Every structure is written in C-alpha cells, then in structure tokens.
Amino acid sequence: MAAAHRRTFNTATLVLVPFWLVVLAAYVGTMLWTVQISFTASKLLPVNTYVGFYQYERLFSSTRWIVTMQNAVIFGVLFIGGALVLGFLLAVVLDQRVRFENTLRTIFLYPYAMSFIVTGLIWQWLMNPGLGIQKAVRGWGWTGFSFDWSVDRDMALYALVLAGLWQASGLVMALMLAGLRGVDDEIWKASRIDGIPPWRVYLFVIVPMLRPLIVTAVVLLAISVVKAYDLVVALTNGGPGIATELPAKFVMDNLFTRQNIGLATAAATVMLITVAAVLVPWIYAEYFRKARKGAAT
C-alpha cells in the first residue's frame, strides 16, 4: 500500500511540474524582469543600459510620487477600515433574521459584482455638480446643499473612499455573515443568562472568533488598494491636479503615457517591496510559526 501511495504521489507531482514551471515563468520571472528593468535607463523600450539606483533617486525626489504614496496610505486606511466596520455592521443586522433578508443581502452584495470602472462612473455622475445629487437637491429648494466631492481638491480623495466602500462593503458583509451564522447558539444563551449586553458579546467574543475571516477580508481589500487604477481613472482621473493620484495610476501613466519604463518599473518595484514587507511577516506568523508549534507539541 505504501509503495502504491508513493507512486500515486510521484505521478501527481510530475503532472503538476508543467503548471509550476508556467507559474515560475509567468509570475516570478516577470517580477524579476521588472526589478531588473528598474535599474536601467529604459524610456520608450527596455534597454540594457544600467544606471544603478538612478531611477529610484528620481522617484523619491518626485513630489508627485510622495503625494501618491500619502494618498495611498490615507485611501488604504479609510477604505479597509471603513469596509470592515460597515460590512460587519451590515452582517450583524442581517444576522437578526430580518424580513426580506435574501433581498437585502442581494442589494448589499450587488455593487461588488460591478467593476471599479462602472463604480467610478456611477459616482462620477452622482457627484457631478451639474447633473448629480447636488443639482437634484438644489432643485428641491435646498440651494446651500453641496455634494461635489469629485471636483473638490480637499474632498476628492474621500470621494474615492466613498465609492470604494459602496462597492466592497458587500463582500465583507457576506464573509462576516457566513462567520456569524457559524457561531454556536450556546454562546448567546450563556450571554443572556449572564446579562451581558449583545454589543459586548460581539466585540469581545464574536469578533475574535471571526479573526480568520477578518484577515481574509483585509487581504482582499488591500489587493484592491494596491491595484486601484480603474476607479481613479473613472471617477477623478487622478485630479483635481494630483489630489487623488495612487501608485497604480502613477505606474500606468509613466509606462504608457510618459514612455518612461525605467521610472514606472522602479515605482512598481517599490510597491512590490511594500506589499512583501507586510505579507511576508504575516505569512510566517500565520503558517510557519503555527506549523512549528504543532510539530513541537
């Protein structure tokens, strides 16, 4: 039996070898190639003229890149934090077995089925001073009402956050609701007997139990932050000025519009290092450390 099992395992491994070769070539290979290009003087086309860290010096001396990174931090914190809170609250409401639960769940989750391009266009229309919510409300007689965030330099970044929350909160709601439905009823019975308020049960008992789902939601939302290009282009196109510029748009603009491949790949490499600096410690703590503890016990 052991020999047969070993042969089956070896056969499965051999079958997967082409797949792993494609993965290494398509993902690892292209990442290494991108990093290598960032050390060259590439403009319109890649070249092998190496200039050391010149592209990185240009990158971090660029006011546009510094503003882009600041916008990414603000957008990321507000988007991820807001989506987690709003999605969890929606899940708590639906977990009360409200009427029309299936309809409400579909309504809340529907925006996530749209692309960021569609979301951006919808909110661009809604925030357009000439034909959106502002015009409608002022037409009703409230002439002092203002909702022109997408063209307001101080509020444009928050317009991106609002549009992102509208789309992503439904995904978090679905994840959290699945977790809440798996909570043992005995926990609620014990809390009612002890007279513990429901909000304390949710905050100190249920939320820690949902930690794996919360981590999953954070990873998915963080990926959306890193690749947030289409939402920016559709809603504000990075403006007014560079008020809503995000790293993905900076990279795409330098890659295709400004024909500066070296600078674009340097920015992409910085994004890769930033993501790796966050994910690698988490992966190590979540998987390898637990595996070592399990082996030790």
From TrEMBL:
It is found in: Cell membrane. Pfam families: BPD_transp_1. Keywords: Cell membrane, Membrane, Transmembrane, Transmembrane helix, Transport. CDD domains: TM_PBP2. One of its GO terms (cellular component) is plasma membrane. Residues 69-284 form the ABC transmembrane type-1 domain. The keyword Transport applies. Its main location: membrane. GO terms for biological process: transmembrane transport. The chain crosses the membrane at residues 12-35, 72-94, 106-126, 155-180, 201-226, 261-284. Gene3D superfamilies: MetI-like (1.10.3720.10). It is a multi-pass membrane protein. Belongs to the binding-protein-dependent transport system permease family. This is Sugar ABC transporter permease. It comes from Jiella endophytica.
